[in-house]
Amino acid sequence: MSSTSNTTTISTVGPPSRRNTELAMLVFAVIIPVFAYANAGLALSDEMPSGMLSYGIGLGLLAGVGHLVVRKFAPYADPLLLPIATLLNGLGLVLIWRLDQSRRLAQRAASIDQVYAAAAPKQLMYSAMGVALFVGVLILLKDHRILQRYTYISMAAALVLLVMPMFFPAKFGARIWVTVGSFSIQPAEFAKIVIAVFFAGYLMVKRDALALASRRFMGLYLPRGRDLGPILVVWGMSILILVFETDLGTSLLFFGMFVVMLYVATERTSWIVFGLLMSAAGAVGVATFEPHVQERVNAWLDPFAAFEKGTTDQIAQALMAFGSGGVFGTGLGQGSSDLIGFAANSDFILATVGEELGLAGTMAFLLLYGLIVERGVRTALAARDPFGKLLAIGMSAAFAIQVFVVAGGVMGLIPLTGMTMPFLAYGGSSVLANWALVAILIKISDTARRPAPAPAPSTDAEMTQVVRP
Amino acid sequence: MNKPLRRIAIFCGLLVLALLVRDNWIQYVQADELKNNKHNHRVLMARYSQKRGNIIVDGQPITGSVATNGTDFKYKRTYKNGKMWAPVTGYASQAYDANQIEKLEDPFLTGNDDRLFFNRTIDMITGKKQRGGDVITTLNGKAQKAAYEGLGNKKGAVAALDPRTGKILALASTPSYDPSTIAGADDAKEWKALQPKDNKDDPMLNRALRQTYPPGSTFKVVTAAAALENGKYTDINAPTKSPLPWRLPLSTKNLDNEGNIPCENATLRQALRYSCNTVFGKLGDDLGKDKMREQAEKFGFGKEFLTPVRANASVYPEDMDRPSNAMSAIGQYDTRATPIQMAMVAAAIANDGKLMKPYMIDSLRAPNLSTIEQNKPEEMSQAVSPENARKLQDMMKTVVDEGTGTKAQIPNVEVGGKTGTAQHGVANSKNPYAWFISYAKGEDGSPVAVAVVIEGSDTIRNDIAGGRLAAPIAKDVMKAVLDSEK
Prior knowledge:
The complex is a heterodimer.
Chain A: H1 2-5, H2 19-45, H3 52-73, H4 81-100, H5 103-111, H6 120-140, H7 151-163, E1 178-180, E2 183-185, H8 187-212, E3 214-217, E4 220-223, H9 229-245, H10 248-266, H11 269-289, H12 291-301, H13 303-309, H14 314-325, H15 349-382, H16 386-410, H17 428-449, H18 459-464
Antiparallel strand pairs in A: 1-2, 3-4
Chain B: H1 2-29, H2 31-35, H3 41-47, E1 55-57, E2 60-61, E3 63-67, E4 75-79, H4 82-89, H5 100-104, H6 106-110, H7 117-125, E5 134-137, H8 141-151, E6 155-161, E7 168-174, H9 188-194, H10 207-210, H11 220-229, E8 246-247, E9 254-255, H12 268-274, H13 277-287, H14 289-298, E10 305-306, E11 310-311, H15 322-329, H16 339-350, E12 354-356, E13 361-365, E14 371-374, E15 379-382, H17 386-402, E16 414-422, E17 433-442, E18 445-455, H18 464-485
Parallel strand pairs in B: 1-5
Antiparallel strand pairs in B: 1-2, 3-4, 5-13, 6-7, 6-18, 8-9, 10-11, 12-15, 13-14, 16-17, 17-18
Region (Disordered) (chain A): 449-469
InterPro entries (chain A): FtsW/RodA
Transmembrane segments (chain A): 23-40, 52-70, 79-99, 124-141, 150-168, 188-205, 226-244, 250-266, 271-289, 348-369, 390-417, 423-442
């Protein structure tokens, strides 16, 4: 019996649940940020930060609740996703708190008549809400395949989310916020998940048509004209976002995610070629007549020229922060990454990592992000249903592209776009959306690794089908 | 579906890899460049994060540091008698970088210099704050004071050297500025008021090293040196073949002397004593521009040099016709010299022809008082032969004893000098520059050579200007050096 069960993917015995591994990792994921907090506090004011105990307990509670819920509702889930998300979120809180202490940022805010409010307590609140959302998704979403039912509702929701910001005033040169009173959200962060659901549902149904009805030309399968429809629509949407919301990052994210999912669904390389050609055409086209995009490209090509001309000093300041950190960094609280000024604790938070934790710390962070993506891709590989596969790969790819776009922008690898480092950066929308994303991945991985229910015993089957080596 | 999934996994891996490579590029390969980038505010913050080392004259600091309460800077630079010492120290400002010694020796003054690595490590282990080292200068406080006070509220500059070693003893420039006023982070108003755009006096210009003036008659010493070196004349007491009046070559114009002075066929000694334009103009023409420039370059003309603060190049013009060369030979036309250059001319002659390279930093001293670097005198060139140098000394002594430079006489001390009054402006319309170069000599060689220039001496327009205005300052500076030698 046991010799046969090893040869099949779906076994009744099943792999270990790995919940204890997750718990052990979570202990580290809580202790490391607490030590980092103590370190930053000692460096900044020579004393242990006063909120240390409550912070430690708070983070521990969030992690503990998350863990218990996973244990109960997704016992076979991937053991690394929750600890990594907790670690990133916890370290993000420390970094944000550290930047809250900056006298320079306080003066800067005062000089432009802004109220300088500490961001860390708010971020802690957002983290609690994020974990609550995580718990909610795990409890309410019994099976990820339920989401398939909402394919077209998701499409409508995604459209609404993406179009909304156009009707609200632009902030800092980009229309990516929806502001109601003093409360503002970035709908694109949520749209990321909703649109992945739509793409997965849509492509699962249409994949055969898209894959098979094609002509071979110069080694590539060319899709039929009418099958090009969906990709043209998404491309058009991306361009519209870019033009009307001047949001390069979101536009890149959605188009990239769609191309990846299309490729996975159809197994046709031609889609990748089409995607690349179309995004290149779109980017060049928009860059030629959109001054905001042009400015960013110029700042990317020569950050120090932009610094001298006074158009923007952000990239140059970020690069100098990275360079000043060197290999081992200045140590938490001892750098001057607050010279970046604007968005130091959100879009540019990686520069603080770079300066204070050095090359070693930054690489560790990048690898943590890499690990989340890797666990996501692994989940997609292990998933047994095409919808789950597509959804998992779509969200993982979106996560990877987002990290690449933000980190690449801050490090001067690609033009800067206004997006936030998942979990690390200050911002409620980002924290909430990414906790939801991790919850769905955990749910899919649970379904993927869950052992199949034991087949009903059938005595005569046993009699006739015994195989002896 | 799993094959494309694996490819996407590789694609995501490549994205992360690209980020890792980029991170290594900016945090390892380019780290130093970015760290020390001129726009990197951290460099400035580090400069003022501890007490800065001092610049020392005669064993006493002429700089200091005071604690501040800003976000970026813990300390601020202060200066003692800043206006007097500004041409030596330069400034160190929290907003406007630094210059001169403050800039050149910045790593040492902040304590970041590699040579202080051992000290830093010890300090780190013993828990002390990083300290900066001191820069010991060659300057002479009394001579500097004499030079600065002598210039008073006139516009001008003084440079004094020790001819035997090349040590710079005095370096004054007026009008000057107090670097303390621009040391802070919020001194924009003071800074603006010092800029040439808003201040036509240009107080931040280091005239002694950077401003080139027409040297006027003081340049005749160089012409005399060229004549002796090239064997044109060997006896300074033999009459020269010098007609009066002398017409400029290829020209219908005569070269005039200042007043009715005995210049016809005058000896070299008398020609220098009376400052005969005709004699030296003709000498320059006889020698030709190449030989003239060759001699000037032996005295240091033609290239900038580092003291380590950069001194601008003095010029003997290259492309010119014969009449221009004759004018250049008496220090007019396009001949231009910095005060330090003319001090070097006097110094080379006083040191029997050997020109020593001028320098103003004697040594660098670590916070634990050990000497990290000791500068040694360096020979720049043999400007004239010792024999000819002595002849030139003889001639310059006559100028001071009974010529135009009598105001520089010091009792019981051998002093040689040369006055000059340089015309400038269109048709010589502007007030001339009054020059005086001189040296004093004792038993063991000459301890001091000086050059003084005063701009816009408005009352006197003839050649006595140099003797009347500049010579007394030179005398005071020489006397200050001689007194401190004792």
